[in-house]
User: Fold this.
Amino acid sequence: MVGLDNAGKTTTLYHLHMGEMVEQINVDSVKFEVWDLGGQAALRLSWQAYYPATDAVIVVVDSTDRGRIGIARQELKNIIDNPSLKGACILIFANKQDLPNAMSVQELSEALDLVGIKDHNWHVQASCAVSGQGLEEGVQWIARHVKAQNAPLFSLPSLT
Assistant:
């Protein structure tokens, strides 16, 4: 789970695991190992150390932080362009939707230039990490896509 500082990553992870600060979440029989990575500029360089063998990335974006949406867009581009994440699905939590000045999902999608993403399945989920609104729907989207990605490419008929 990545995102700029103060985007709401820690609160999101807290709510996804019913109040416990842990690193493993089970959703629809899919086990997630979640790393809450710091979003300060100096720490963002370390994100790529966690990318190998990653099936999905959760990006938490502060929907009220219009002044830093360009930085969020660039960090998302860095994630998408990283060869270690080839084929990984991308969930973007449009966080802080409870606040009156929050960008809508449509506005945030345009600001992040998501239509340009061609090599990854992606989804933007409106969310409020404080109340938990939208979080379960987001991780269920990831679970469906990770299951589909890891499904066998073919199956043999039964011989019985």
Q: What stands out?
A: The two ends are 45 Å apart (CA to CA).
